Amino acid sequence: MEFYFTPASSEHIGKERARARELRASLWWRQQVGKGLCYHCQQTFAKMELTMDHLIPVVRGGTSSKNNVVVSCKSCNSAKGNLTRAELAMRGEV
C-alpha cells in the first residue's frame, strides 16, 4: 500500500529542524531520554541508542514541540520513517 502526500515547504522543514535542535538541548528532553524507554516498542535502551521521533513527521507538516516528539530507538524510528501511527496500524506494524 502506497501513501502519497504533499511535502511541507523547505522553509517549514528548516525551521522545525532548528526547533528540534533547541528541544534536544532542553532539560525536558534529557529527562525523557533518561528514562531509556522507546515509545514504539516499549523496550529499554542506552541513551546513545535513542532518537527524537516526530509523531506527525516534519515533512508532513508536523512541529518540533513537546506534544509531537517522543523518544524512539533507532530501529523503530527508521522503520516508521515518514509514516504516522495510523498508517503503521493500517500496515499492521503497530
Describe the secondary structure blueprint for this structure.
Elements: H1 10-24, H2 27-34, E1 50-54, E2 69-73, H3 74-80, H4 85-91
Structure commentary:
With 94 residues, this protein is of the alpha+beta class. It is built from 4 helices and 2 strands, in the order H-H-E-E-H-H. A two-stranded antiparallel sheet has the order 1-2. The longest helix is centred in the first third of the chain and has 15 residues, at 10-24. It is flat, with a radius of gyration of 13 Å. 14% of the residues are buried. The mean pLDDT is 92.
- Arithmetic mean of pLDDT: 92
What are the low-pLDDT stretches, counting only 5+ consecutive residues below 50? none
Radius of gyration: 13 Å
Instruction: Give the helices and strands as they follow along the chain.
Output: HHEEHH
| Spatial order of strands in the largest sheet | 1-2
| Sheet with most strands | 2 strands, antiparallel
Mass-distribution shape: flat
**Proportion of beta-strand residues:** 5-15%
Q: What separation lies between the terminal Cα atoms?
A: 16 Å
Annotation, overall tally of beta strands: 2
Q: Approximately how much helix is present in the residues?
A: 25-40%
Individual helix count: 4
Question: Structural class, please?
Answer: alpha+beta
